[in-house]
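From the pipeline queue, job 12 of 40. The input is one protein chain; the requested action is below.

Action: predict structure.
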Amino acid sequence: MNFLAHAYLSFNHPEILVGNMISDFVKGKKKFDYSKGVQQGINLHRQIDAFTDIHPATKEAKTFLQSAVGLYSGAFVDVAYDHFLANDANEFSDTSLRLHATHTYQILATHNAILPDIFQKMFPYMQSQNWLYNYRSMSGTESSFGGVVRRAAYLQSSVEVFELFQKHYSALQNCYNDFFPSVKAFSFEQIEQLRN
């Protein structure tokens, strides 16, 4: 899952959301520098990632993109899942997605002082370009694919993988449909356990 899903699967718990969003930028023992709630979000993010990676639907989804990006296929599936989530009428309307994005940015801005340096530098672009909402569009998703390439050590272009995403759109959407209800239930259960 990518930024939109991690924010959404925090279920409106502000500190958990912050931890869930910054987890990839917090290495090793650095997580203990944060409050208990943010640590819970960091841990939740990692549990969601592990659940996502072993899910049969994700394994199938990766096969549609592997010919272009090999072992990076999982990162692109994460972006594809955010695209399908942004367009999932069971989870968002256009208005509720806009509101969710705005609310997420407000929470992150409130906690700006504790955000890791790399995330702090990225956050203004996330907010000004409205990444969370723009997963809804093909152009926004294409831009996010480009972002994966910029962060990857061995990739030069997202053109071929985006073409595969378009070619296998329906099959990838079916993978998302098989996957998302289970990760939503899993995440909710994890938060309930954390908070009890």
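Job complete. DSSP finds twelve helices and no strands in the chain.
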